Amino acid sequence: MTLRPTLLMTALLIAPAARAQTGPLTLTPLLDARLRWEDVDATTRTAHAETLRLRAGAQVAHAASHLTLLAEGTGTLPFGSAHSAFSYAAPSSQYRPQRATIADGAALGLNRLQLRYATAPLTLTLGRQRIALDDQRFVGNAPWRQNEQTFDAARLQLSRGALRLDATQAIGQITVNGSAGAPRDRLAGRFTFLNGGLATGGASLKGFAYLLAYAPTSFLDQPGARSQLDSSQTWGLRATATVARGGVRLALNGSVARQSAYGGNPNPYAATYTALEGAVSIADHTATLSREVLGADARAGAAFQTPLASLHKFNGWADVFLTTPTQGLRDTTVGLTGPWPGVKRVTYAVAHHWFGADVGGARHGREIDASLGLTTGRIAWLAKLARYEAQAFGVDVRKLWVQAEIVF
């Protein structure tokens, strides 16, 4: 699928950037564009891609009825063919197995189409929508990829005093593979997200349940869109706390969960998840130390998986561990973020990961990630580096990115 660059640039030039009042209705245009260069060296395969992503749409709000209608389309245009847009054998010319994967293929489609009713305590959303829960470890919109992950769902959010409740029933997952990524572009099933608890002051305690039952066929009745081995039920708890004293801020968060087979999964496995992170902030600089363990069930040959997560955010930017190895994964990370000293509008982030197996204790490898961000007017610039050094898992991987994003 191809898009004309002139059409994308014309849309950027003619779209209004301010809200317009139309009687009792409020019309808000939605427009953002992101241009990215990515280069990958995965030892035996290389790739580079230059891609332009455009999202455009509008939101119409009626204050008296508390209703909002939002419609948004999305298009991604790659320049050149020096990468594989898919890590699986898709029936598309964008699948190039001799090249490393850069999962930003050409695409054109409907990103969001939703109707929302919102008051102070209650929000109801129906339709194709963006869902990002907590830190997005279990359910997210995968914002790093050019093609966003969204859901066809009905969602209820309730806030009453210290009580928080978030409940979603979805029938479809619109993946980052884009409109040319059949059969994994749109995955059918029954997906239930339950998340709720108490939040007061600088602390919160939540329970959650994520029930994923993938259908044996896709929306288009194509077989094998996703294996039912990916169907699972995850139950857990998440706690957060923040304390500030004399210019120093301490933040702690932790999660524990248990995952097992669900929804037609023929493999009766069970695995645990634990995560603990501490962060200390002084003068806008934040140092973090975290430990995350995605457990494994050695007898069943399966490990804890999070197929709906914003995966690029976790376990290193090199994306070596998008799928948890069957031996499980332990990730110990130290990081530092903040404003670049003495330079306005420039931020930095660095992190070091040590990866190992949960079962057997093998040292998988280590990774260094670093980024610089710069804001000039409406444009956000970003340069990123990820370097994974393999020990007992995978191959050495080096990735570079440079991108510019503008949001109206």
List keywords for this structure.
single chain; 408 residues; mainly beta; two-stranded antiparallel sheet
**What summary fits the major beta sheet?**
18 strands, antiparallel, barrel
**Beta-strand level of the residues, as a percent range?**
over 45%
User: Gyration radius, to the nearest Å?
Assistant: 22 Å
Question: How would the global form be characterised?
Answer: globular
Poorly predicted segments = 1-21
What do these coordinates show?
- It is a single chain.
- The chain is an all-beta fold and 408 residues long.
- It has a domain of 94 residues.
- The protein is built from one helix and 21 strands.
- The chain has an 18-stranded antiparallel β-barrel. A two-stranded antiparallel ribbon has the order 15-16.
- Strand 12 and strand 13 form a beta hairpin.
- The N terminus is likely disordered.
Question: What is this entry, summarized?
Answer:
By secondary structure, this protein is mainly β. The protein has one helix and 21 strands. Helix content is 2%, strand content 57%.
